[in-house]
Amino acid sequence: MRQPIRAMVAMWPEITARLLPPDLRRRLDGLVTVVPDTPVTDFAVASAGEDLAATDVLITGWGCPPVDAAVLAAAPRLTAIFHAGGTVKPLLTEDAWQRGITISSAADAGAGPVADFTLAVVVLAGKRALPAARRYAAGHFPNHAQRVDGNDGRVVGVIGASRIGRRVIPRLAAAGYRVLVSDPYLDPADAAALGAELVDVDECCRRAGILSLHAPAIPATRHLIDARRLALMPDGATLINTARGALVDTEALTAACASGRIDAVLDVTDPEPLPPGHPLFSLPNVLITPHVAGVQGSELRRLGDFAVDELERFLLGEPLLGQVHRADLPILA
């Protein structure tokens, strides 16, 4: 008789109730035997080690310690990890890939809120809402002749045809924006199918009134938007970063925004968090949010739903929708 599949949940307890609310936890319990009943945050604890020895799959999330060689040695039956979160890079060491463990990420489930946030910011940026709001607070209420900014015919540049970029581009195109995209792994036909024109990064900066970043943080993209490329952006342009702070040279951006020549909306910064009193906080044409574009609050359930769906597909022998392959890591966020 086949033994029941045993799963371990490894994440911060305070986040578990949102990732796996009661009805979703009951569904999980119907698929596998979860041992222990409470989430694990330290694999080195003796009781966790005993449970690891009989664990077939891991359900992971924020707060899961790294799955390294010692963990794998303690878990000889482990065959799959289902991550109820985005990137798996901080979670896994090379040992997991060498072992041939199946890895799935719920990054696709988390992409929707970021795309929604980006689209909302694009609309505000096209109307230059940030500087307009500050001028209004200072007593200036424009008449119709002075209202010169709008979104009709606006050119938006997207850096990175990532899972989020690929959600943003078609929606921008459908809304009537002229969309440029820059991505070294995209060809012109693929860009056209998304609804965009493929250009290089410099041209994207030069032509776009709104520039939205959706590239991964890898060595090749560090400070991709530097002083030179910021200087290419048109006067009155807006830089939006919902990807990774390291894509932008913070010092150069601070200078460019302080001049009043360009605006910025930053959901991520470098460093993160940005230290209190940083000059960017005080600029009237800059909005900085504390990494809220991704799943928040009630949206966290999306990640748990995806992870449990993936587990069920795995148990049924069906293809996984969020499988991560070792070869893709260099270009993933």
TrEMBL record:
Keyword NAD: yes
Organism superkingdom: Bacteria
Molecular functions per Gene Ontology: glyoxylate reductase (NADPH) activity; hydroxypyruvate reductase [NAD(P)H] activity; NAD binding
One Gene Ontology cellular component: cytosol
InterPro entries attached to this UniProt entry: D-isomer_2-hydroxyacid_DH, D-isomer_DH_NAD-bd, NAD(P)-bd_dom_sf
Domain D-isomer specific 2-hydroxyacid dehydrogenase NAD-binding: 124-293
A Pfam family reported for this protein in Swiss-Prot or TrEMBL: 2-Hacid_dh_C
Protein's UniProt keywords contain NAD: yes
Keywords: NAD, Oxidoreductase
PANTHER family xref list: 2-HYDROXYACID DEHYDROGENASE YGL185C-RELATED, 2-HYDROXYACID DEHYDROGENASE-RELATED
The name this protein goes by in its record: Glycerate dehydrogenase
